[in-house]
Design goal:
single chain; mainly alpha; Helix Hairpins; three-stranded mixed β-sheet; 4 helices; 3 strands; about 70% helix; rod-shaped; binds zinc ion
């Protein structure tokens, strides 16, 4: 039993490294997607600003056209005025002309506001474009660095996987599937030593009976609380802090309990 567990413990150490690598990879991938979403957000803002500017320009052209028409109409009326003899008709035309002039002045005011707004929007657009290109430039190095590190993580993972596969074929065919199922659930060490008479996975105190079973090592013993597989840390008393059974230490024979 102890020998079978020793091999599982070796596999477990590899699995812990692989879990750490996978977490690291996920973190780095998250960084990449953050950078990407910052860029996308800026691109979206640039596009929106572009279409706002197009809209302003369109309105400006419309207003300019309308003002042109008013100017032409005014000129026409002024021309007619020269040919008129009757005072009433002359006055009526004068009123019409001044009404057109008021209209024109209102339109010119609106146009001037539009010019101001357009200038403001174009400034914002320029700033957005600049920060988009700065972001792209400054993130390029970071993105390369992250991609490199992901590549290294994958490489390291492949090596570990190779080592694991070699051990897995030698693993006990009954214990190994149990170990793998527990590992999938806990994503952490699932074969743990007894420490201070407790399960070192969940720290629940074990009964003397369970402790004895584990010490004998005749069959697989699970922690009743967390279902982890328990083992007796050899070479030390149960106080040993997670020492691996393989690293047996020679101790002078003393009056041990
Ligand atoms: Zn436990």
């Amino acid at each position: 039993m102890q020998k079978a567990l020793t091999l599982i413990l070796d596999i477990q150490e590899i699995d812990m490294q692989m879990i750490r690598l996978m977490r690291l990879k996920r973190e780095r991938q998250k960084e990449l997607s953050n950078i990407d979403s910052i860029k996308k957000d800026l691109q979206r803002k640039v596009l929106m600003k572009e279409s706002e500017i197009i809209e302003y320009k369109k309105n400006i052209r419309l207003d300019e056209g309308e003002i042109q028409t008013v100017v032409e109409n005014t000129k026409k009326l002024e021309g007619q005025q020269g040919a008129i003899r009757k005072v009433e008709e002359f006055n009526a035309l004068s009123q019409e002309i001044s009404s057109l002039e008021r209209d024109r002045s209102a339109k010119e005011q609106r146009l001037s506001d539009l010019y101001d707004k357009l200038a403001g929007e174009e400034d914002i657009y320029k700033t957005l474009k600049e920060s988009l290109s700065t972001t792209a430039d400054s993130s390029r190095e970071l993105v390369d660095e992250i991609n490199d590190s992901i590549h290294r993580i994958d490489e390291e993972g492949r090596i570990l996987k190779g080592q694991r596969d070699k051990l897995a074929v030698k693993a006990d065919s009954e214990i190994f599937p149990i170990y793998e199922r527990l590992l999938r659930n806990k994503k952490n060490r699932v074969v743990v030593p007894i420490e201070h008479r407790s399960c070192s996975g969940c720290h629940i105190v074990l009964t003397a009976q369970d402790e004895n079973l584990v010490r004998k090592g005749e069959r697989l013993t699970f922690c009743e609380h967390c279902s982890r597989i328990l083992f007796w840390p050899e070479g030390e008393a149960a106080e040993a802090s997670g020492t691996r059974p393989r690293q047996r230490r020679r101790r002078a024979p003393t009056k041990s309990a």
